[in-house]
Amino acid sequence: MNSIILRSAAVAFASVAASLLLTLIIVPAMGFPLNRTIWLSSTLCPLVLAWAASASTFWQSDRLKSAHRDLARAHAQLAAAHRRLAEKASRDDMTGMLNRENFFAALEGSRRKSDRGALLIIDADHFKRINDSFGHLTGDDALLLIASAIERGVRSGDVLGRIGGEEFGAFLIGATEQEAKRVAERIRREVELIRFRPVDERTIPLTVSIGGTVCGEDVNVSDLMRAADQRLYQAKHRGRNRTILDTDISEAA
Predict the structure, then answer these.
(1) Fewer CB within 10 Å, N side or C side of the chain?
(2) How many domains does one find in the chain?
(3) Options 108, 151, 166, 179, the catalytic residue
(4) Are 116 and 208 in contact (CB under 8 A)?
(5) Does residue 241 share a domain with residue 140?
(6) In what order do the strands lie in the sheet with 167-173?
(7) 207 and 235 in contact (C-beta within 8 Å)?
(8) In a domain, 252, yes or no
(9) Structural domain for 28, as ranges
(10) CA-CA distance, 72 to 77, in Å (whole number)?
(11) Is 105 contained in some domain?
């Protein structure tokens, strides 16, 4: 408010100065004397009118600026809320990893940027036994431990997703076959080291089987999934708690 009064006063006094200047020039030129009435009219009229008009204009301008700031702030908050909702919708509620749909969307996006990389499918071994023996809440605890072990095993920047009940996907961006094998084995080992004691201090072993394939040029995501899934099937049938990964997708195509 003080700012409006000061700015209005400046405009009003500028108007008075302009009015007096014009009075000094025009009135004598027309042959009229400069009396008290003319001086008062030249001073009071622009002072009152200009002050009131400028005060109203500045007030409306300040309100408009404030409304614009509020609108911009609300827009920013709405955009942030939209980003949070979109992020939440893309994540698995339990593990915080990408859900199935968004994992494959991210995998597709990564494939468009580069042909290099490796896809791993990680499946918890004998997980139904834990759910049947101890209940689904205990099974959820075990699943969270496995998810954390997978996160420790991958590299920074790799894409992780929960693609099934106890099945996870990991896309190792830019990884060679040797790098992918090291990561897969590190994941397997991290899970194997978990000491899961749901009841009576008895340790329940947790292991995973991992199937993977290295991305070849011009291979689509569906072919990669079939190849990695075939390796996972082989790992399960060779005794579980193992990793099978190679570059040949012909068997699964």
Answers:
(1) N
(2) 2
(3) 166
(4) no
(5) yes
(6) 159-162, 167-173, 117-124, 208-214, 243-246
(7) no
(8) no
(9) 2-89
(10) 9
(11) yes
**Mean pLDDT across 94-103:** 93
Tens digits of per-residue pLDDT, 157-182?
999 999 999 999 999 998 999 999 99
Lookup: tokens for 15: 């108007």
The answer to the question of residue 253 being in a domain is: no
**177 annotated active-site:** no
Could you give the CA distance from residue 182 to residue 165 in angstroms, rounded to a whole number?
Answer: 25
* Average pLDDT value for residue range 27-34: 58
Most trustworthy range by pLDDT among 25-34, 210-219, 226-235: 226-235
Q: CA–CA separation, 73 vs 105, rounded Å?
A: 32
The average pLDDT across 47-74 equals 68
Predicted model pTM:
0.67
Assigned token pair, 119: 């896809």
What is the C-alpha separation between 194 and 206, in angstroms, rounded? Answer: 7
